[in-house]
Amino acid sequence: MASSIIALLLFLSSPFISFAASQAAKTFIFRIDGGSMPSIFPTHYHWYSTEFAEESRILHVYHTVFHGFSAVVTPDEADNLRNHPAVLAVFEDRRRELHTTRSPQFLGLQNQKGLWSESDYGSDVIIGVFDTGIWPERRSFSDLNLGPIPKRWRGVCESGARFGPRNCNRKIIGARFFAKGQQAAVIGGINKTVEFLSPRDADGHGTHTSSTAAGRHAFKASMSGYASGVAKGVAPKARIAAYKVCWKESGCLDSDILAAFDAAVRDGVDVISISIGGGDGITSPYYLDPIAIGSYGAASKGIFVSSSAGNEGPNGMSVTNLAPWVTTVGASTIDRNFPADAILGDGHRLRGVSLYAGVPLNGRMFPVVYPGKSGMSSASLCMENTLDPKHVRGKIVICDRGSSPRVAKGLVVKKAGGVGMILANGASNGEGLVGDAHLIPACAVGSNEGDRIKAYASSHPNPIASIDFRGTIVGIKPAPVIASFSGRGPNGLSPEILKPDLIAPGVNILAAWTDAVGPTGLPSDPRKTEFNILSGTSMACPHVSGAAALLKSAHPDWSPAAIRSAMMTTTNLVDNSNRSLIDESTGKSATPYDYGSGHLNLGRAMDPGLVYDITNDDYITFLCSIGYGPKTIQVITRTPVRCPTRRKPSPGNLNYPSITAVFPTSTRGLVSKTVIRTATNVGQAEAVYRARIESPRGVTVTVKPPRLVFTSAVKRRSYAVTVTVDTRNVVLGETGAVFGSVTWFDGGKHVVRSPVVVTQMDTL
Fold it and tell me: Residues 561, 566, 570, 576: is their CA dihedral positive or negative?
């Protein structure tokens, strides 16, 4: 200990605290070995502010899920601090983005049945929502007939601009905001003319996700007449704790997100819902990803963390939030749509969608024009100041999707004198359609329909068109369909772990909204609405958060891994036409790279029969298996660890509910790989399960033993899955993988399915 103190004091004597005049200061996050603090310091804060950075430059001090602090320093100072013997890791603050009624019933929930049957189901569970805050006055957040706040709750209701303790109740039991990272990163600080320096939501996204997860019943709900009916969240009686980490104009910063994880775990939440991810295309290793680090700290204390898979689909390897201790959720459609058809002068009616609620066109035809006849251009994208009023005045304008917000294109058309807009997908968006609350008569159409409309507009001497807005239609088939934007596998960090884990409703979801902005979120939109309809994996994530809350209430002794397993092994793989799930972007059959284990079916997850549990030690073994050393792992786990030295573990042996066999690309000929899984019986004490194997095409899969016998004394059984493939003959296809499954049946109602993925890829 004496030698370490001497080393620290020698380091302290170096001039690392002064600013370098030639460098701009930035926010950095420092992971510190908390056990190295000399005894002369009463707290870690005193240590950090004495040895590492001046008190005025420290933003957050992390105690719970992470040991360390964030501070504003120059890059040179950050590099100098890396050499401090107590510093385990340093990373620059990174900006993240949000992954922007009827959906609970579509998950298999029914009034007065199953997880909605008991009067207080979920009321003992607290969901922490990391987002843009909350608009507390909405009916969705009423505490009518809710019982007392759980006694174990240790959180607070922070005061700020237009928000105080009176805005919390027995529904919203806590609210915090985290702005220090933003204030340091944004020149001039947070813009208080458009933002509330408080938990109040100026954006709407957080209000929407909170009510999706746990909104109360709200009768006569709609968005300007669309999706009318009763709006309610997945867990209507669960408690909400709002953690505002994202800001309307400046997004979400890692330093603030990590502080929210620290607070939420300390406050006593049971579930964390985080519809946030990287929007820069960069996938950081787990030890440099504060969301992965914070999530591990939460999961290690028994808190379920659900996250969005990202909206960069349908490209392969676009899924985000990849850590195996996080439940990663992709997006699907539901059986409700808002059709709006483009009607051409030649009689063709082309399918589209819209949430336009203004004065309809009533069948009146207008000239139609495409401003990008020579191909993609700023005019074809209807960017600001690109449309010539002489060419578009009094016409319906065809605009290509991309580069600017969809609804903003309509405003550009309106300013140029256009009367309407047809928004056409490009090839990258395919046929995936998202409804928007346009400010002018407008609809969105798929890539194929868009090409047909453009061809008509360019070839006909006097092209005309109209738009027919057909309101809300329920019972759409097929549904669910994998949303074209939903992030896709494979997992770019650990291909042995299939991501996303599952899919849930994320297209055209009705939920509560803020009064600070209109339904489009545009500053020029003066409309106010109690509810709004949004799409994104941001909307899918809180469905799983609410589902986890209900399962936690029904099974309080289940771990986060057991809850995820229950959801993953009981999913649906067919749509409401009883056909295989399809990919919206292609119209073809989807694969586990698109939907993970399948579509959430909460009714079946209540009683899964078997679960695949994972302990903290299992996660540490996994981190060892992917080549992380003890010091690197300590950045994530907070405590020193030891990795096996004799035999390196295999990442495929993590007790995950899905199975991925990865063979090196250099492999030629007949090869095999065996993975081990351990099933825990959570059903009837006396049970016998038999395996049914669906081998991927060109692959042989065997399971030993093929029969699992459970008794009151034996609740856990292990089995081996061996995958054998001749790489000279197997055809991996467009996805680079082939797919099958291993399913366990007990002869009764329990069907426990794990997808099997076989691929060739070079890994560690």
Answer: negative
Catalytic residue among 33, 93, 131, 203: 131
Active-site residue, from 67, 84, 99, 205: 205
pLDDT per residue as tens digits for the range 662-694? 998 888 889 999 999 999 999 999 999 999 999
List, in order, residues 6 or more apart from 601 with CB less than 8 Å away: 107, 108, 570, 571, 572
b vs e for 405-421, b when ≥16 Cβ sit within 10 Å of the residue's Cβ?
A: ebbbbbbbbbebbbbbb
Strand 396-400 with 366-369, pairing: parallel
> What spatial distance separates the first Cα and last Cα of the chain, rounded to whole Å?
36
Distance CA 62, CA 255 (A): 10
Backbone torsions φ then ψ of 404, nearest 5 degrees: -150, 160
SS (H, E, C) 476-496: CCCCCCECCCCCCCCCCCCCC
In angstroms, the CA 422 to CA 298 distance is: 46
Token reading at 129: 């929502």
Tokens encoding 576: 């409401």
Could you tell me whether strands 172-177 and 239-244 are parallel, antiparallel, or unpaired per DSSP bridges? parallel
Give residue-wise pLDDT tens across range 120-139: 667 899 999 999 999 999 99
User: What distance in Å separates the CA atoms of residue 263 and residue 156, rounded to the nearest whole number?
Assistant: 10
Residue type, 28: F
Residues 6+ apart with CB under 8 A from 433: 352, 353, 425, 444, 445, 446
The one catalytic residue among 538, 597, 625, 741: 538
Query: Residue 63: left (phi > 0), alpha (psi -120 to 50), or beta?
Result: alpha
Low-confidence ranges of the chain (pLDDT < 50): 1-21, 101-104, 112, 116-118, 374
Q: If we measure between CA atoms, which residue out of 355, 23, 63, 28 comes closest to residue 222? A: 355
How many angstroms separate the Cα of 264 from the Cα of each of 149, 155, 610?
16, 8, 30
User: Is residue 262 annotated as part of the catalytic site, yes or no?
Assistant: no
Beta-sheet pairing, 687-694 with 707-710? antiparallel
Active site residue 538: yes
For Cα atoms 59, 65, 66, give the angle at the middle one, nearest 5 degrees: 50
Q: Are strands 327-332 and 502-505 parallel, antiparallel or unpaired?
A: parallel
The answer to whether the CB of 533 falls within 8 A of the CB of 354 is: no
**Residue 363 region, left (φ>0) first, then alpha (ψ -120 to 50), else beta?**
left
Q: Could you give the angle at the alpha carbon of 570 between the alpha carbons of 564 and 571, nearest 5°? A: 90
Told to judge if 208 belongs to the known catalytic residues of this protein, a careful annotator would answer: no
Encoded tokens for 86: 């107590």
The per-residue pLDDT for 523 is: 87
Q: Are residues 600 and 594 in contact, defined by beta-carbon separation less than 8 angstroms? A: no
Structure tokens given for 670? 């007949």
Check: CB of residue 62 under 8 Å from CB of residue 113: no
Structure token digits, residue 710? 């459970």
Bridge-based pairing of strands 271-274 and 126-131 is parallel
Q: Which pLDDT does position 763 carry in this prediction?
A: 67
553: nearest Cα among 47, 126, 38: 126
